[in-house]
Amino acid sequence: MANLHQVELGKNVKMSALTANGKDLHDDRDKAEKEFKKLREEFADLQPKLYAEGKQKLLIVFQAMDAGGKDGTIRSITKGVNPQGVNVVSFKAPSKRELAHDFLWRVHHEVPGAGHITIFNRSHYEDVLVVRVENLAPQQVWEQRYDQINQFEKYLTDTGTRIVKFYLHIDKDEQRQRFQERLDAPEKHWKFSKLDLEKRKHWDQYMDAFDAVLERCNTKHAPWYVIPANQNWYRDLAVSRVIVQTLREMDCQYPEPEAGLENVVIVD
């Protein structure tokens, strides 16, 4: 599936060279928003086919820096989609029980079942991002995880799961503005943590870590898409284009009806 934002296989990615501004790529916001609404409606129409068919699975992964827009994107693109067939999983800092297992243990438990869409808000990639930058494990440990992630995702696709992965790319100035908005609005204080400022100090190291993820864990069966996310309207459009095109390619079909239903008459 050709896409403007799909990371090329085998390409060395440098976040510093990528735009975070959707308006650099689409100068007509009204047109973009109209297209997005149509795509969102199509998403809502395609999802019941996946659910009813009950064979294929779709895993959607979102990663971003703090205030990158993961929550807003998920809320926006899934409006009108039947929640019975969609599950959103947020991965926070691992619990003591989770740390007693391998790093993929808690992730494998949450992958979609047949007929379902699962959306990861953060994911197994935290174990080669936060863990790497914050020195939560020795390099010899997290270095192995790139190959382990690739093997894990290949196993999922071999067993019927389609995977698409999005990095929502905002720049450092945009993050500062969003942090300030959270501080200025009392009703948004819950979204802000002083730890966010500590992570912001390591912005460049996180960009290096994302460079490595996009280079080493970008595969044909589980591609990465870098979405310019400074403007929400462009972000939502770009993400929806990929998801809807993916569902089109999956070509889910409603099951054949039970024989003889055309002659059934409901009698009280």
Main pleated-sheet profile: 5 strands, parallel
Number of helices: 10
Average per-residue pLDDT, rounded, comes to 94
Report the strand count.
Answer: 5
Topology as a string of helices (H) and strands (E): HEHEHHEHHEHHHEH
Labels describing this entry:
single chain; 268 residues; alpha/beta; 10 helices; 5 strands
Give an account of the 3D structure:
- The structure is a single chain.
- The chain is α/β, with parallel strands linked by helices.
- It is built from ten helices and five strands.
- A five-stranded parallel β-sheet has the order 2-3-1-4-5, sandwiched between helices.
- It starts with 28 loop residues before the first helix and ends in an 18-residue tail after the last helix.
- The mean pLDDT is 94.
In short:
The protein is of the alpha/beta class. It is built from 10 helices and 5 strands. It has helices spanning 29-53, 70-77, 96-99, 105-108, 130-133, 139-158, 172-184, 194-200, 203-216, 232-250; strands spanning 57-64, 86-90, 117-121, 161-169, 224-228.
